[in-house]
Write a structure and sequence with these properties.
The complex is a heterotrimer of chains A (about 700), B (about 600) and C (about 200). Chain A has about 700 residues and is α+β, with helices and mostly antiparallel strands. In chain A, about 55% of the residues lie in helices and about 15% in strands. Chain A contains 25 helices and 22 strands. In chain A, the strands form four sheets. Chain A has a seven-stranded mixed β-sheet with strand order 10-22-21-20-11-18-19, sandwiched between helices. In chain B, the strands form two sheets. A two-stranded antiparallel ribbon of chain B has the order 1-2. A two-stranded antiparallel ribbon of chain B has the order 4-5. The longest helix of chain B is centred in the C-terminal third of the chain and has 36 residues, at about 565-600. By secondary structure, chain C is mainly α. Chain C folds into two domains: about 1-40; about 40-195, no CATH class. Chain C is about 45% helix and about 10% strand. Chain C has helices at about 1-35, 35-40, 95-110, 135-150, 155-165, 180-195; strands spanning about 45, 50-55, 120, 135, 165, 175-180. In chain C, a hairpin with a 5-residue loop joins strand 1 (about 45) and strand 2 (about 50-55). The longest helix of chain C is centred in the first third of the chain and has 33 residues, at about 1-35. In chain C, about 45% of the residues are buried. Classes of the chains: A alpha+beta (about 700), B mainly alpha (about 600), C mainly alpha (about 200). Chains B and C meet through helix 1, helix 2, helix 3, helix 6 and helix 7 of B and helix 1, strand 2, helix 3, strand 3 and strand 4 of C. Chain A: Pfam families: E1-E2_ATPase, Hydrolase.
């Protein structure tokens, strides 16, 4: 679905049409009131409309044509801002509509007793409440969010994730949650419903997407206060111009006082309409961009907080390293050849279907051409790994080959009457210090050597961490490995710090400690035992593949279940803030040029000397004022794509980033309107509009 | 500007910057309650004061309590000044037997001195008794300055403290500021000024015999003081002769020292620091000018010291100094260019070895152009407001710069304490914008800047323009407001705008042609001074309280550094943009158009 | 609020005593003992001990035989040392132009063949109205007139002016200037020594 559908062009014609229509629908005072800056423009437009009507009655302060043109462009300003918001919302709405298709009412098989085989009654999915237990069989839709308590099944989750490959859901473990609206493809599941109607994941997603629960984020509120303050400053500056102008006319004895129309035009040009008009679009678009990345945020606040993250906790396995360790070397004991060791190791691993086991077989084949032997023909007995022995291996032709962790094999060798040489001990430590996992191989009472199982650090991950460091984010690797191994991998991957032998308690304590120091912590998690840490973290991304508990505890859900997504989430959060900051700067910087356009024009009759300030050489007072108003309206339209896409984030360090953005949006904001207003003035003159 | 002028400005800046550092560190020690020389001398006195006043000096206050104490103390001081003025006719130390001050003027002056504005609606030597000058005005010169510094220190504690609700003890900050900072400095400066010729006596005014007898005419007045008119309706005048000149004296040096050091600015005499008895020599001028900016500049270092990063103080000081220097050069060159109207009359305004030249109307020969312009910029950059030349007679642009400096919110050095807390508020706004631009919730000195701080910052930035623009609008719409205007045309508008700017930002200087000692202006400007002083102090204290309660965010590589040239530039841009965007329309109708007219019609 | 009352009242009272009583008294004491002349107004006394002016405060001169100081805008008469102040005329005020034109005329009336441009400080009002100084240019402009009125050789008057030039203080601060009252007193003194 979704990313394909969503990444459709910004100006998809259907969305556009919809947005235009929405822009008009938003012209109600209630809608406008939500945005104080644009509300002022709205009132100004109403006022000039009245002034125009007054001219029709034959008592105008300026020519009817002039007032009408100004009025029309003021209304355009309001509409353009509405359109920006509608365009941002439009994309989200399209997604919400898609999600709704998954939310049709599904018949549920409610079990009388919470076990497979119990009798069930068919009821509507929407009447299920928390705690109900349902049976879902192949071909059925999952009627609501819940945890699998019995059974294994493959589930098609494309309705939520857009991923067409089915996933396995089973009771126990980290793959036990199912989401309403998905479909069981094979086998059956017994599921305990975990959400009441209206509170399901799908419901939350839809309301989030639709913005029904969209609240202003803290920074948005603070920025709004600043914008309101600026608006009030300019309101004062323009309102008081009327008495000032009256006095000037009186004392200079020439000209007319400034007209209300011109005052309104000046006010609208000065107040930060660019950022005011685009502010809510930026917020909506930020959440929308998260969605394009297949991340569902539960609040805009969470997205914004992502931009502030100071510390990132990352699970080693699956995030920093590829999920599986692989055999990298055979290190034989004294008196044993490498090939002998490889041979024994391969024999011991022939039926070991774990990725580690398979990698041993492959490595032996690569290095020494040792072919896989036919298991049956050897007449061997395979010893499978058990939690008690913590070894696996093979018995054949009198040989008893075992492989396993150092302490297990050591015990085995000694039990067999052999000796575990000190040199072996040293080899084991060396391997561990390299960040690899040592696997010791023994043949009866003789220790043959060590297999080095290596954690493979993901390609490109080191570069991502460098980027994060430049963003000012500290990365901490979380692993169950011992300190030695953890330190080596941390060094290889380039993380700043690590937490070895991590327990859920240790994770929670680490998060709390950083928060107490005033840092904002982000983490990802999927297991139930991650839930406390997720709940504690400021930005917590739960994997969609994870448990219901993890998803409940997080404030974002990654539908792709990709732990490196956090980095993109942080970027999106930063982009949202940066876009607001940049457009605010741009908006305020624009005012300089607008003063140069309007002030000489407004007082042309009283103080013609002020025409020295008409540095742009605008044709007439009317064309100057009109050009400024038109520029002010058009710039909103011109900046909509930027507002929706967000400005590009580059991890350059705070100082450099600020400098770049000040140059582009500050200095740019100074220069662009001079060019724009002059160009509009030229067009107006050539078209004989003024 | 010639080399000598350039050299004087350079020496001034160097002296200011060099002296500001040790004084700043000393003040930080005072506020940290560390042992200092003065402390060991006066520790007993300080403890005794607290005991007499029932002050629990170890007990810190929440911001609301701090604000409450400040308001009560200031209001009380205001009432005392009012009472002294209205009763001075039957109080002692009134050798000239000056009458009581009218209630509207007394109220205006009381507000003016309590708020550290020191706007002078009255003429000192012609209206205030020595007792009023000492017990009323001199005392408030100290206490209003100390109030501003106390609020600043409370705000700094907001940054340096964490997870606490208290921001210090107002009484202690007040007492220590006065005893250990203002009094010793004032004493030193006062003696140095007397050495240069500033008067300091309790004797009555002196009378000297004139070399050339004076003949002048005065309107004849009837018994009730109305001018007697002749048949044509012209006032009848009578010719008078005089052989004598009466020289106004008084305990001036002691008051002038604190008036400059405490960015007060209210003169002992009407002509303020242009009066030869207030400012007799170029050296006294240099010392007084230095005193104007010394404490505001030094407080930047105090700030850096107290927040534990001296670079933060340097950055603010650098930002202030840059704006200051740039505007000094604009003003000096505007004044040095002179008045084209006089050139056409055959007046020589060229600078030469024999004369400073330039626009000398309203300036003193010993100061010339450079020292008058430099003073004008310093006194308006700081919220001092004392003048050694008449701003009303400056060229339009030369007069606009001081007015604009006031309109910037008195943050380029600004008043003692108030200037820096104003600048810190601007820094919060700059940090906020910058923080957004780098994609982080803004933080300053380890404290997150959030909606509450922005709300208070907005109030602080909004109030002065509201008072200035709103008040000016009111004045130019009413007959009472327009009647006081002296100069015609756009310049008259500038007079009113300057008056409201000065009162609405607690500066105190004036385009003195405006007859402001009338009920309309006494009340309007009084209100403006009151609102701009306390309307800003209270939100500043609220910010202090809010910041103190926050935890400290450690500095990381993602933190925006606020001690770099880039930040200084951003801060300057923020201050100038707010100031320019708010006041450009008004300034266009005053000094800007007047300058264009002056150049177009010499 | 009431809990603030006692500290506020008492502290204000004590601070008033310290800063409003003790401090000015101490400064006066020190000033009167270390710099008595300056502290009392830098008065100039004649041989009889009568005060005839102050080195700091200017006096008005309008006769041709005296050097004139800065125009003074004090009311009701110039150089009123109990009502200091400037004209406050704005640069574009026609009244300023008229006043300057009048002053030029007054100067030129007594100095008919002097067509040099008039130094600006001689025709513009000072800030205090009590400015005791004029620029060197302004003094030089008047040398010929004073010499003629006193029937003294120009060179003698010029020498007197030169000897009354106060250079920049410490060679750096302020402007070079001439104290008008001091110069005029010296002129009168020179006349007295010349006559008998």
């Amino acid at each position: 679905m979704t990313h394909k559908a969503l990444s459709a062009s910004l100006f998809d014609s259907d969305l556009l049409k919809q947005a235009v229509w929405e822009a008009f629908k938003k012209l109600t005072p209630q809608q406008q009131w939500k945005n104080p800056v644009m509300f002022v423009v709205y009132l100004g437009s109403l006022l000039t409309t009245c002034l125009w009507l007054q001219t029709l009655a034959g008592a105008g302060e300026e020519s009817a044509g002039f007032i009408l043109t100004i009025t029309v462009w003021l209304w355009f300003t309001v509409l353009f801002a509405n359109f920006a918001e509608a365009a941002a919302e439009g994309r989200s709405k399209a997604q919400a509509a898609f999600l709704r298709t998954a939310k049709r009412d599904i018949a549920a098989k409610k079990l009388d007793e919470p076990r497979y085989g119990s009798d069930y009654s068919k009821i509507a999915g929407s009447s299920l409440v928390k705690g109900d237990v349902v049976l879902i069989e192949a071909g059925d839709f999952v009627p609501g969010d819940g945890d699998v308590i019995e059974g294994v099944a493959s589930v098609d989750e494309s309705a939520i994730t857009g991923e067409s490959a089915p996933v396995i859901r089973e009771s126990g473990g980290d793959f036990s949650s199912v989401t309403g609206g998905t479909r069981v493809l094979s086998d059956w599941l017994v599921v305990r419903i975990s959400a009441n109607p209206g509170e399901t994941f799908l419901d939350r997603m839809i309301s989030m997407v639709e913005g029904a629960k969209r609240q202003k984020t803290p920074n948005e509120i603070a920025l709004t206060i600043l914008l309101v303050a600026l608006t009030l400053v300019f309101l004062m500056a323009t309102v008081t111009l009327l008495p000032f102008s009256l006095y000037s006319v009186e004392t200079s004895g020439s000209g007319h006082p400034i007209s209300i129309t011109v005052l309104v035009a000046l006010l609208v040009c000065l107040i930060p309409t660019t950022i005011g008009g685009l502010l809510s679009a930026i917020g909506v678009a930020g959440i929308g961009r998260m969605m394009q990345k297949n991340v569902i945020a539960t609040s805009g606040r969470a997205v914004e907080a992502a931009g502030d993250v100071d510390v990132l906790l990352l699970d080693k396995t699956g995030t920093i390293t590829l999920g599986n360790r692989q055999a990298a070397a055979f290190i034989p004991a004294k008196g044993i050849s490498e090939k002998q060791l490889a041979d024994a190791a391969q024999l011991a691993s022939l039926t070991d279907e774990t990725p580690e086991g398979r990698s041993i077989v492959v490595l032996a084949k690569q290095k020494f051409g040792l072919r896989e032997r036919d298991v049956q023909s050897l007449g061997a007995t395979f010893i499978h790994f058990s939690a008690q022995t913590r070894m696996s291996g093979v018995n054949l032709q009198g040989r008893q080959i075992r492989k396993g962790a150092e302490d297990a094999i050591k015990q085995y060798v000694i039990e067999q009457g052999g000796r575990f040489p000190d040199q072996m001990q040293k080899m084991v430590v060396d391997v561990a210090r390299r960040g690899s996992t040592p696997l010791v191989v023994a043949d009866s009472k003789q220790a043959l050597g060590v297999i080095e199982l290596k954690d493979i650090v993901k390609g490109g991950i080191k570069e991502r961490f460098i980027e994060l460091r430049q963003m000012g984010i500290k990365t901490i690797m979380i692993t169950g490995d011992n300190r030695l191994t953890a330190a080596a991998i941390a060094a290889e991957a380039g993380v700043d710090d690590f937490l070895a032998e991590a327990t859920p308690e240790a994770k929670l304590a680490l998060i709390r400690q950083h928060q107490a120091d005033g840092r904002l912590v982000a983490m990802t998690g999927d297991g139930t035992n991650d839930a406390p840490a997720l709940a504690q973290a400021d930005v917590a991304v739960a994997m969609n593949s994870g448990t219901q508990a993890a998803k409940e505890a997080g404030n974002m859900v990654d539908l792709d279940s990709n732990p490196t997504k956090l980095i993109e989430i942080v970027e999106t959060g930063k982009q949202m803030l940066m876009t607001r900051g940049a457009l605010t700067t741009f908006s305020v910087a624009n005012d300089v040029a607008k003063y140069f356009a309007i002030i000489p024009a407004a007082f042309a009759t009283t103080y013609p000397a002020l025409n020295v300030l008409n540095v742009m050489g605008l044709a007439t007072p009317a064309s100057a004022i009109l050009s400024a108003v038109i520029f002010n309206a058009l710039i909103i339209i011109a900046l909509i794509p930027l507002a929706l896409k967000g400005i590009k984030y580059q991890p350059l360090g705070a100082e450099k980033l600020l400098q770049n953005n000040l140059l582009v949006y500050g200095v740019g904001g100074l220069i662009v309107p001079f060019i724009g207003i002059k160009a509009i003035d030229l067009v107006l003159v050539t078209m004989n509009l003024v | 500007m010639n080399e000598a002028g350039f050299l004087q400005i350079l020496i001034y800046l160097i002296a200011l910057l060099v002296l500001s550092k040790p004084l700043g560190v000393y003040m930080a020690r005072v506020y940290q309650d560390e042992s200092i020389v003065a402390n060991t001398w006066f520790a007993g006195l300080e403890r005794g004061l607290y005991r007499l006043c029932g002050i629990q000096d170890k007990q810190d206050m929440r911001w609301q309590q701090y604000a409450g104490a400040l308001l009560v103390f200031n209001l009380l001081g205001l009432l005392v000044v009012y009472a002294l003025q209205t009763c001075q006719d039957w109080l002692p130390l009134n050798p000239q037997t000056l009458p009581a001050i009218a209630p509207d003027s007394a109220l205006n002056t009381a507000i003016s001195f309590a708020t550290n504005t020191n706007w002078q609606g009255y003429a000192g030597e012609a209206s205030m008794s020595y007792l009023t000058q000492m017990l009323g005005l001199t005392v408030q010169n100290f206490l209003s300055a100390a109030s501003g510094m106390a609020v600043l220190v409370a705000l700094i504690r907001g940054f340096s403290r964490r997870n606490t609700s208290s921001i210090g003890n107002f009484w202690v900050d007040m007492t220590r500021t006065t005893l250990y900072i203002l009094l010793p400095l004032s004493l030193l400066l006062a003696i140095a000024l007397v050495g240069q010729g500033v008067v300091q006596t309790f004797d009555r005014y002196a009378t000297v015999k004139l070399q050339e007898p004076l003949t002048y005419s005065t309107p004849t007045v009837d018994a009730v003081g109305h001018a007697v008119l002749d048949a044509q309706g012209h006032p009848i005048t009578q010719t008078q002769q005089s052989q004598e000149q009466t020289l106004a004296l008084g305990p001036a040096a002691s008051q002038i020292a604190i008036k400059q050091l405490g960015t007060n600015g209210g003169g002992f005499f009407n002509a303020n620091s242009a009066h030869p008895y207030e400012n007799p020599t170029p050296l006294s001028n240099f010392l007084e000018m230095l005193a104007i900016l010394l404490i505001p500049a030094a407080l930047c270092h105090t700030f850096g010291f107290l927040v534990g990063d001296s670079r933060q103080g340097w950055t603010l000081l650098a930002a202030m100094t840059l704006v200051f220097v740039a505007l000094v050069f604009v003003t000096v060159s505007a004044e040095q260019h002179g008045n084209p109207a006089l050139t056409s009359l055959g007046v020589d305004q060229a600078s030469s070895i024999q004369q400073p030249g330039g626009n000398m109307e309203g300036k003193e020969a010993r100061f010339g152009i450079v020292n008058s312009a430099l003073w004008a910029v310093a006194t308006t950059a700081a919220s001092n407001g004392s003048v050694n030349a008449m701003h009303d007679s400056f060229t339009p642009i030369g007069g606009m710069i001081p007015m604009w400096l006031i309109q910037l919110g008195e943050v380029i050095f600004g008043g003692v304490g108030s200037g820096l807390y104003g600048m810190i508020v601007f820094a919060l706004v700059a940090v906020f914008i910058a923080g957004l631009m780098i994609g982080r919730t803004p933080e300053y000195l380890g404290k997150k800047i959030e909606a509450f701080e922005m709300q208070m910052a907005a109030v602080i930035i909004l109030i002065p323009p509201l008072l200035v623009l709103g008040g000016t609008a009111l004045a130019v719409m009413t007959e009472a407001g327009k009647a006081s205007i002296l100069n015609p045309g756009a310049h008259g508008f500038s007079e009113v705008l300057y008056a409201l700017s000065s009162a609405g930002n607690n500066n105190g200087s004036a385009f003195a042609g405006l007859s402001a000692n009338v009920p309309f202006y006494n009340y309007l400007l009084g209100l403006a001074m009151l609102v701009s002083r306390y309307g800003l102090m209270i939100p500043v204290l609220a910010i202090a309280g809010s910041l103190a309660a926050k935890k400290h965010v450690p500095v990381g590589p993602g933190t925006l550094p606020t001690h770099t040239p880039l930040f200084a530039v951003l801060l300057i841009i923020t201050v100038l943009m707010v100031g320019a965007l708010t006041f450009v329309p008004a300034l266009a109708l005053g000094p800007i158009v007047e300058q264009l007219h002056m150049l177009a019609h010499p | 609020m009431t809990s603030y009352f006692r500290p506020a009242v008492t502290l204000l009272l004590l601070m008033t005593i310290i800063t409003g009583g003790f401090y000015p008294a101490l400064v006066t004491l020190l000033a009167q003992s270390v710099f008595p002349a300056q502290a009392n107004g830098s008065l100039i006394r004649d041989k009889q001990g009568q005060a005839i002016g102050s080195t700091q405060i200017g006096q008005g001169f309008s006769q041709a035989r005296y050097f004139w100081g800065r125009p003074s805008a004090t009311a009701p008469y110039p150089y009123n040392a109990t009502a200091s102040g400037g004209s406050n005329l704005g640069p574009t005020n026609p009244a300023l132009r008229d006043a300057v034109a009048q002053r030029i005329q007054a100067l030129q009336q007594l100095d008919l063949d002097n067509h040099a441009p008039v130094p600006v400080d001689l025709v513009t009002a000072s800030a205090s109205g009590l400015d005791p100084h004029i620029s060197i240019a302004a003094a030089n402009y008047q040398v010929k007139r004073v010499a003629e009125a006193r029937q003294l050789p120009e060179s003698k008057v010029r020498d007197l002016v030169d000897s009354h030039i106060e250079p920049r203080q410490w060679r750096v601060f302020g402007e070079a200037r001439v104290n008008v009252l001091g110069l005029n007193l010296a002129l009168d003194a020179a006349a007295q020594t010349a006559r008998p």
